[in-house]
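Listing S7. Sequence submitted for prediction.
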Amino acid sequence: MDESDITSKIVPCLGPLSKDPMQHVRAALAESLPSLCPIIGKKSTTDYILPIFLTLLKDEFSEVRVNLFKHLEDLTKVIDLDSLSSSLLPALNELAVDKNWRTRAAVVEFLPFFAQKMGENFLNDKFSKILIDWLSDRIYGVRDAAIRCIKNLIDSLGSQWAEKQLFPKIIPFQSNPNYLHRMTLLFIIQVTLKFCSTFLIILHSKLEIFYHLKLFQRLLLLF
Protein backbone atom coordinates (compact mmCIF):
# COMPACT_ATOMS: atom_id res chain seq x y z
CA MET A 1 0.00 0.00 0.00
CA ASP A 2 1.56 3.32 -1.08
CA GLU A 3 1.22 6.83 0.33
CA SER A 4 -1.84 7.76 -1.73
CA ASP A 5 -3.69 4.60 -0.70
CA ILE A 6 -2.96 5.25 2.98
CA THR A 7 -4.06 8.88 2.85
CA SER A 8 -7.20 8.12 0.87
CA LYS A 9 -8.34 4.84 2.45
CA ILE A 10 -6.88 4.58 5.97
CA VAL A 11 -6.32 8.10 7.26
CA PRO A 12 -10.02 9.16 6.97
CA CYS A 13 -10.90 6.35 9.41
CA LEU A 14 -8.45 7.49 12.05
CA GLY A 15 -10.15 10.71 13.13
CA PRO A 16 -13.31 8.99 14.42
CA LEU A 17 -11.18 6.38 16.20
CA SER A 18 -9.42 9.14 18.15
CA LYS A 19 -12.82 9.98 19.69
CA ASP A 20 -14.00 6.42 20.21
CA PRO A 21 -15.71 5.95 23.60
CA MET A 22 -13.58 2.85 24.31
CA GLN A 23 -10.28 3.96 25.82
CA HIS A 24 -8.50 0.80 24.64
CA VAL A 25 -9.40 1.65 21.03
CA ARG A 26 -7.82 5.07 21.44
CA ALA A 27 -4.78 3.51 23.13
CA ALA A 28 -4.33 1.10 20.21
CA LEU A 29 -4.63 3.98 17.75
CA ALA A 30 -2.03 6.00 19.67
CA GLU A 31 0.38 3.07 19.54
CA SER A 32 0.14 2.64 15.77
CA LEU A 33 -0.49 6.19 14.55
CA PRO A 34 3.12 7.50 14.53
CA SER A 35 4.30 4.54 12.43
CA LEU A 36 2.42 5.98 9.44
CA CYS A 37 4.43 9.20 9.44
CA PRO A 38 7.63 7.98 7.71
CA ILE A 39 5.48 6.28 5.06
CA ILE A 40 3.26 9.20 4.10
CA GLY A 41 5.86 11.98 4.49
CA LYS A 42 5.94 15.41 6.08
CA LYS A 43 3.08 17.13 4.25
CA SER A 44 0.51 14.38 4.78
CA THR A 45 1.69 13.92 8.36
CA THR A 46 1.24 17.64 9.05
CA ASP A 47 -2.14 17.76 7.32
CA TYR A 48 -3.71 14.52 8.60
CA ILE A 49 -1.75 12.77 11.35
CA LEU A 50 -0.63 15.71 13.49
CA PRO A 51 -4.16 16.95 14.32
CA ILE A 52 -5.12 13.44 15.46
CA PHE A 53 -1.87 13.13 17.41
CA LEU A 54 -2.54 16.40 19.24
CA THR A 55 -6.09 15.30 20.06
CA LEU A 56 -4.83 12.03 21.56
CA LEU A 57 -2.17 13.93 23.47
CA LYS A 58 -4.97 15.49 25.54
CA ASP A 59 -6.73 12.19 26.19
CA GLU A 60 -7.82 11.67 29.79
CA PHE A 61 -6.61 8.06 29.74
CA SER A 62 -2.89 8.05 30.52
CA GLU A 63 -2.15 4.89 28.51
CA VAL A 64 -3.20 6.70 25.34
CA ARG A 65 -0.66 9.46 25.95
CA VAL A 66 2.07 7.03 26.98
CA ASN A 67 1.58 5.05 23.75
CA LEU A 68 2.10 8.21 21.71
CA PHE A 69 5.43 8.85 23.41
CA LYS A 70 6.54 5.24 22.95
CA HIS A 71 6.57 5.71 19.18
CA LEU A 72 7.34 9.41 19.03
CA GLU A 73 10.58 8.76 17.14
CA ASP A 74 8.56 7.82 14.03
CA LEU A 75 6.83 11.20 14.09
CA THR A 76 10.10 13.08 14.59
CA LYS A 77 11.51 11.48 11.45
CA VAL A 78 9.34 13.87 9.45
CA ILE A 79 8.55 16.70 11.91
CA ASP A 80 11.20 18.43 14.02
CA LEU A 81 10.80 17.76 17.73
CA ASP A 82 11.40 21.41 18.66
CA SER A 83 8.28 22.42 16.75
CA LEU A 84 6.23 19.97 18.83
CA SER A 85 7.75 20.78 22.20
CA SER A 86 5.08 23.28 23.24
CA SER A 87 2.49 20.49 23.05
CA LEU A 88 4.64 17.53 24.11
CA LEU A 89 6.36 18.88 27.21
CA PRO A 90 3.22 19.78 29.20
CA ALA A 91 1.83 16.29 28.46
CA LEU A 92 5.12 14.70 29.49
CA ASN A 93 5.08 16.75 32.68
CA GLU A 94 1.63 15.50 33.60
CA LEU A 95 2.52 11.87 32.93
CA ALA A 96 5.69 12.21 35.02
CA VAL A 97 3.58 12.62 38.17
CA ASP A 98 0.70 10.34 37.17
CA LYS A 99 -0.92 8.44 40.04
CA ASN A 100 -0.27 5.13 38.25
CA TRP A 101 3.32 4.09 39.01
CA ARG A 102 3.59 2.11 35.76
CA THR A 103 2.88 5.31 33.86
CA ARG A 104 5.59 7.15 35.79
CA ALA A 105 8.05 4.31 35.14
CA ALA A 106 7.23 4.35 31.42
CA VAL A 107 7.75 8.10 31.15
CA VAL A 108 11.22 7.84 32.71
CA GLU A 109 12.36 5.88 29.68
CA PHE A 110 11.42 8.72 27.30
CA LEU A 111 13.76 11.23 28.93
CA PRO A 112 17.02 10.17 27.17
CA PHE A 113 15.28 10.49 23.79
CA PHE A 114 14.26 14.09 24.54
CA ALA A 115 17.68 14.93 25.95
CA GLN A 116 19.40 13.53 22.87
CA LYS A 117 17.14 15.45 20.49
CA MET A 118 16.88 18.73 22.40
CA GLY A 119 20.18 18.90 24.29
CA GLU A 120 21.11 19.08 27.93
CA ASN A 121 19.48 22.47 28.47
CA PHE A 122 16.09 20.78 28.04
CA LEU A 123 16.90 18.43 30.87
CA ASN A 124 18.51 21.03 33.10
CA ASP A 125 15.66 23.47 32.71
CA LYS A 126 12.63 21.23 32.49
CA PHE A 127 13.14 17.85 34.05
CA SER A 128 16.09 17.72 36.43
CA LYS A 129 13.81 18.10 39.47
CA ILE A 130 11.42 15.47 38.14
CA LEU A 131 14.33 13.07 37.66
CA ILE A 132 15.30 13.51 41.30
CA ASP A 133 11.68 12.96 42.32
CA TRP A 134 11.66 9.69 40.36
CA LEU A 135 14.79 8.57 42.20
CA SER A 136 12.90 9.21 45.44
CA ASP A 137 9.67 7.57 44.31
CA ARG A 138 8.01 5.27 46.83
CA ILE A 139 7.73 2.52 44.17
CA TYR A 140 10.87 0.51 43.42
CA GLY A 141 9.96 0.09 39.73
CA VAL A 142 10.04 3.86 39.22
CA ARG A 143 13.32 4.27 41.10
CA ASP A 144 14.88 1.43 39.12
CA ALA A 145 13.75 2.97 35.81
CA ALA A 146 15.21 6.32 36.89
CA ILE A 147 18.57 4.72 37.71
CA ARG A 148 18.70 3.08 34.26
CA CYS A 149 17.67 6.40 32.77
CA ILE A 150 20.70 8.07 34.37
CA LYS A 151 23.02 5.60 32.64
CA ASN A 152 21.38 6.35 29.27
CA LEU A 153 21.52 10.09 29.90
CA ILE A 154 25.24 9.91 30.59
CA ASP A 155 25.66 7.93 27.37
CA SER A 156 23.97 10.80 25.50
CA LEU A 157 25.16 13.88 27.38
CA GLY A 158 28.52 12.78 28.78
CA SER A 159 30.07 12.46 32.21
CA GLN A 160 30.80 16.20 32.50
CA TRP A 161 27.08 16.92 32.38
CA ALA A 162 26.48 14.33 35.10
CA GLU A 163 29.21 15.67 37.39
CA LYS A 164 28.03 19.23 36.99
CA GLN A 165 24.24 18.93 36.81
CA LEU A 166 23.23 15.59 38.29
CA PHE A 167 25.57 14.34 40.99
CA PRO A 168 25.41 17.48 43.18
CA LYS A 169 21.64 16.93 43.39
CA ILE A 170 21.85 13.29 44.46
CA ILE A 171 24.73 13.52 46.96
CA PRO A 172 22.24 14.53 49.71
CA PHE A 173 20.71 11.07 49.37
CA GLN A 174 23.57 9.73 51.51
CA SER A 175 22.19 11.43 54.62
CA ASN A 176 18.51 10.76 53.94
CA PRO A 177 16.86 9.04 56.91
CA ASN A 178 15.10 6.64 54.51
CA TYR A 179 17.49 3.77 53.83
CA LEU A 180 15.89 3.20 50.41
CA HIS A 181 17.22 6.57 49.26
CA ARG A 182 20.70 5.67 50.46
CA MET A 183 20.49 2.38 48.61
CA THR A 184 19.38 4.26 45.48
CA LEU A 185 22.60 6.25 45.67
CA LEU A 186 24.63 3.04 45.82
CA PHE A 187 22.80 1.65 42.79
CA ILE A 188 23.55 4.86 40.91
CA ILE A 189 27.23 4.42 41.72
CA GLN A 190 27.05 0.92 40.29
CA VAL A 191 25.68 1.99 36.91
CA THR A 192 27.89 5.09 36.60
CA LEU A 193 31.16 3.59 37.81
CA LYS A 194 32.71 3.05 34.39
CA PHE A 195 31.53 6.44 33.11
CA CYS A 196 32.34 8.78 35.95
CA SER A 197 35.31 7.93 38.10
CA THR A 198 35.36 11.53 39.34
CA PHE A 199 31.97 10.91 40.90
CA LEU A 200 33.49 8.24 43.11
CA ILE A 201 36.30 10.57 44.13
CA ILE A 202 33.70 13.13 45.15
CA LEU A 203 31.81 10.52 47.09
CA HIS A 204 34.91 9.25 48.84
CA SER A 205 35.79 12.74 49.95
CA LYS A 206 32.33 13.98 50.90
CA LEU A 207 30.35 10.90 51.89
CA GLU A 208 30.77 8.08 54.35
CA ILE A 209 30.77 5.68 51.44
CA PHE A 210 32.25 2.67 53.22
CA TYR A 211 29.64 2.87 55.94
CA HIS A 212 26.88 2.68 53.36
CA LEU A 213 28.52 -0.16 51.49
CA LYS A 214 28.60 -2.15 54.72
CA LEU A 215 24.97 -1.29 55.32
CA PHE A 216 24.16 -2.46 51.82
CA GLN A 217 25.93 -5.78 52.45
CA ARG A 218 23.96 -6.30 55.66
CA LEU A 219 20.72 -5.61 53.85
CA LEU A 220 21.57 -8.15 51.16
CA LEU A 221 21.96 -10.81 53.85
CA LEU A 222 18.34 -10.24 54.83
CA PHE A 223 17.08 -11.51 51.46
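Caption to Listing S7: primary sequence and predicted C-alpha coordinates for the chain studied. The mean pLDDT is 83. The domain at 1-79 is CATH 1.25.10 (Leucine-rich Repeat Variant).
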